[in-house]
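Sequence and structure are kept together here, with a separate record for every protein. A complete record is shown below as an example:
=====
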Amino acid sequence: MSLGDELGKYVEKWIVVLDNTIVASGQNLKEVYRRAKRKHPRKTLFVMKVPADKIMVL
């Protein structure tokens, strides 16, 4: 299953992606980023909000 296939579960939520894997998700951007950074402090994380009307393929 690709990351694009998983995005439907996260509509209208913030997600943090690392190495093509969703490592955190939720409604609050700061909390989601904080949790992901705590797990992966030395990594560069990609953060986005999944839109409701269409799914983006990364």
Q: What stands out?
A: Helices lie at 3-6, 29-39.
